[in-house]
Amino acid sequence: MPSRLGVGETFRLKVKVLGAGPVEIPAGGQWNHRKPQLSSVFNLNVCRDIRFMDNCLPEWEGRLVADGGPDLEGPSELVFRRESQGVFPNDTRPIKFFPGFRWLRPGFHFLKLTEPESGLTVSANPVCVTEGLPKKRIFWGDPHWQTFFSDGIRCPEELYAFARDEGFLDFGAISDHMEAVTDRQWDYFQLVTDHYNRPHRFVTLHGQEWTHHLEEGGAPGHRNVYFRKAGGPALRCTDKDCNSLEKLWKKLCKNRHLDPVAIPHHTSNTVMGVDWEQGWNAEFEKAVEIYSVWGSSELPEKSGNTRPIRSLEGEKAGRHVVDALNKGYRFGFVGGGDIHDGRPGDDLHNDSYPVRNFQSYPQGFTAAFAPALTRSHIFDAIKNGKTYATTKKRIYLDIDGPLEDGTLEMNCASEEGIRHIVSIRNGVESERIEPDTDPRIVRSKVSAAGIGPGEYMYFRLVTEEDNMAWTSPIYG
Fold it and tell me: Is 208 contained in some domain?
């Protein structure tokens, strides 16, 4: 469901019926197979042994009972018929959008779907309903995917279609390793990205990855670079004019008219992480990817990180996000996939990516606060720190303020139940908040006093099923 709605505002419920486990979809295609297709010639990466997997039932007829209580108006039964479902021609999988729902009262609401024959019941993500139409919405995205052009699988058209129609994302971006991509291929990426950009339905961003971990004595680390519109250059660390951070920043300076944003990621990793001693670019580095399939770079495992990076020699001290914040660097937080399995928004890395001791986690999401789903609004949210990051759940996390009395107003919800929310001040946990009457909801006020110049504060939410969300920091 959309995370924010007004009373009486109609919405579509997006549903996908899954099978018992993922099934490999063989690589293959004919001369007349248009993209996207479930079976594609790009479904296999031999080098990394990545295979395209599908966890949706191949075909299913039946009905689901929708229960949102007396405050929900709309269909009580969702009917699936093989001839009228799926996301591309001749697709019989049970994926469908059901219109005609609306909530009749303000507050947090939850919806359950039950398959009556088996009794299986699942819960949708929470929605916060306001008296009037929300001035700011919450849109869900993943701005970090690889295609077969570098070290992933599937072509750009297939990834954008999957993100929109099966991952149920509001926005996303291909961020292929530019070192593997030619200038002409980059031109093609930009054309496909603009083609799939549809305001108020699905937003795409022009992205690429500068993949520098080749320098001895401390690598500068990877950066995903996004431009507000098409026309930016391909940025390759293997090109002599872009083989250092200093040269990368010079190239971005030459393209200020495209408003570039650079986002470091898996920063805490030993091999591919970020050496914060090499500095921070305040003009371009507006956000940091705190979580992805690699794990969380927030803080070290010994400090309580339950999803530390373990692959490629694991984590390295001094490279975590809190280390950068403690040095005075200022970022918003985003979550990403860094997915290579062709499934943005619904990755299956744990099942389909057992590559050379690569220990992966479920992907991350970015939640963007914006008045409308347009490229400009999403770009502004990422650039201005109006985002929060989550593991693979649409957790509702809204911290508003500081208010006139110096407090922050906290409104949070998760269908999994909330274990606790902790506030982190200057790298140290300072306060823990737990639910009151409803274990799925936290409504509270928290003091923001004492955040002085050069200091910061953010919040981490943990659900009862160990999913997490991180607010972008508040800075003094």
Answer: yes
Q: Strand 77-80 to strand 62-67: parallel, antiparallel, or no bridges (unpaired)?
A: antiparallel
| 25-to-44, 361, 476 alpha-carbon distances in Å | 9, 22, 51
Cα distances (Å, whole numbers) of residue 474 to 87, 214, 370, 458: 41, 34, 18, 6
Rounded distance between C-alpha atoms, residue 77 and residue 59, angstroms: 19
Q: What is the pLDDT of residue 218?
A: 60
Cβ 275 vs Cβ 319: under 8 Å: yes
Say if residue 339 is in the same domain as residue 312. yes
Give the model confidence (pLDDT) of 222-248 as tens digits.
999 999 999 999 999 999 999 999 999
Helix (H) or strand (E) holding 284: none
At residue 174, the 3 state secondary structure works out as strand
pLDDT band, very low/low/confident/very high, at 357 (cuts 50, 70, 90): low
Q: What is the predicted pLDDT for the residue at 351?
A: 54
115 and 251 share one domain: no
- Confidence category of residue 172, pLDDT binned at 50, 70, 90: very high
**Do the domain assignments include residue 32?**
no
Q: Are residues 316 and 280 in the same domain?
A: yes
Model confidence over 434-446: pLDDT tens digits? 999 999 999 999 9
Structural domain ending residue among the three candidates 103, 130, 157: 130
Mean pLDDT of 315-325: 97
User: Is the CA virtual torsion 157, 158, 163, 168 positive or negative?
Assistant: positive
Q: Is the pLDDT of residue 349 over 80?
A: no
Please check the confidence at residue 143 and state whether its pLDDT lies above 80.
Answer: yes
Prior bond of 362 cis (ω within 30°):
no
pLDDT at 399 over 80: yes
Q: Are 389 and 290 spatial neighbours (Cβ–Cβ below 8 Å)?
A: yes
Residue 317 and residue 296 share a domain = yes
> pLDDT at position 113, please?
98
- Give the range of the structural domain holding residue 96, as residue numbers without chain letter: 4-17+57-130
Cβ(398)–Cβ(469) under 8 Å?
Answer: no
Q: Indicate whether 109 and 223 sit together in one domain.
A: no
CB 177 within 8 A of CB 146: yes
Of the three residues 112, 130, 148, the one that is the final residue of a domain is 130
Tell me the percentage of the chain whose pLDDT exceeds 90: 88
DSSP label of 29 = -
Both 85 and 147 in one domain: the answer is: no
Q: How many domains does the chain have?
A: 2
**Do β-strands 332-335 and 287-292 pair in parallel, antiparallel, or remain unpaired?**
parallel
Q: Are 228 and 244 in contact (CB under 8 A)?
A: no
